[in-house]
Write a structure and sequence with these properties.
The protein has 4 helices and no strands. It has about 210 residues and is mainly alpha-helical.
Length: about 210
């Protein structure tokens, strides 16, 4: 009776279960047959085991990438929320500051108009108002510079978010490539199984 691939696989598992190395000699001692037949089936079985181990590692990396993608999505969503909140606060601050400054400038300009219509006794008051106006304008300039600096920092943070988005896209591309490798390995394994089945069906004289 001809030795089959399943006979060789059973012999390998039996030899390994007792802690021995599944050499051709050890397999032949169990199944008999020719050394060439045992060598052929043994090589196919070992190759299939290596491919299965490789696919297992690929699946693990695919799972890790999926977790990493979810983590990046969470980080990006949280950071974008923080940036939006900060931008809203700065815009509100600018609006409030502008409103306050406009109101103060209107008051001061009104007082200057009234002061100009008064006698020389009002000159001193005009000088004081001008000093107040200068102080307010300098204060407004300082606040504007500070707010501009905050906006620049926020734009830098937005740039970091953009970089994280690009990295995420790159990881997703790698993820798709790994899936493609898995599919290719599946196709190759299937083709080898088909080839093995055909060889098993050949007459004994063709081994």
């Amino acid at each position: 009776m001809a030795v089959t691939k399943n006979d060789v696989l059973t012999a390998i598992e039996q030899i390994e279960s007792r802690g021995d190395n599944p050499t051709n000699a050890n397999i032949l001692a169990i199944v008999g047959g020719s050394n060439a037949t045992v060598q052929k089936y043994r090589s196919e079985i070992m190759s299939e085991r290596q491919q299965q181990a490789f696919k297992s590692r690929i699946v693990l990396k695919d799972s890790e990438l999926s977790k990493l993608t979810n983590t990046f999505n969470d980080l990006l969503a949280n950071r974008l929320g923080e940036l939006n909140s900060e931008l809203t606060q700065i815009i509100n601050q600018l609006q409030t500051s502008n409103d306050d400054l406009s109101a103060q400038l209107d008051v001061i300009q009104g007082e200057l108009v009234n002061a100009n219509n008064q006698s020389k006794a009002k000159d001193e008051r005009i000088s004081e108002l001008e000093n107040e106006l200068s102080f307010i304008e300098k204060k407004a300039s300082r606040e504007k510079d500070e707010l501009n600096a905050q906006l620049v920092e926020l734009y830098k943070q937005a740039g970091k978010v953009e970089l994280l988005t690009e990295k995420l896209a790159s990881l997703e591309t790698e993820n798709r490539e790994l899936k493609r490798v898995i599919e290719n390995n599946k196709d190759e394994t299937y083709a080898k199984k088909q080839s093995t089945r055909k060889q098993e069906k050949l007459p004994l004289g063709r081994e």
